[in-house]
Amino acid sequence: MRTIIAQLFFDREVVEAVKQTEVDNAKLYNYLMEGKITMQEYLQLCKA
Questions:
Q1: 40: how many CB neighbours lie within 10 A of its CB?
Q2: Does the pTM of the predicted model rise above 0.85?
Q3: What is the Rg, in whole angstroms, of the alpha carbon atoms belonging to the chain?
Q4: 28, exposed or middle or buried, with CB in 10 Å at 0-12, 13-18, 19+?
Q5: What sign for the dihedral angle of Cα 42, 11, 29, 45?
Q6: For residue 16, what are the contacts with CB-CB under 8 A and spacing of at least 6?
Q7: How far, in Å, CA of 37 to CA of 9, rounded?
Q8: Cα distance between residue 15 and residue 20, in whole Å
Q9: Which residues lie closer than 8 Å to 25 by C-beta, 6 or more apart?
Q10: Are the C-beta atoms of residues 15 and 41 closer than 8 Å to each other?
Q11: Nearest partner of 39 among 28, 47, 24, judged by Cα
């Protein structure tokens, strides 16, 4: 499991674009599942 986590690559361009625009929760979830954003970023950006 640690090797899988170590190999994850988070797309910084996607993170910056998401922070600057309004993105719905479904798209954020897809980014999370694709490994483009971290769980912490997802929780900060997700609207309840």
A1: 8
A2: no
A3: 11
A4: buried
A5: positive
A6: none
A7: 9
A8: 9
A9: 46, 47
A10: yes
A11: 28
The 10s digit of each residue's pLDDT in 4-25 is: 555 556 667 777 777 777 778 8
Q: Rounded to the nearest 5 degrees, what angle is found at the Cα of 48, between the Cα atoms of 43 and 38?
A: 15
DSSP code, position 27: H
What was the pLDDT predicted at 1? 46
Query: What is the share, in percent, of the chain residues with pLDDT greater than 90?
Result: 8
Higher pLDDT among residues 5 and 35, named by residue = 35
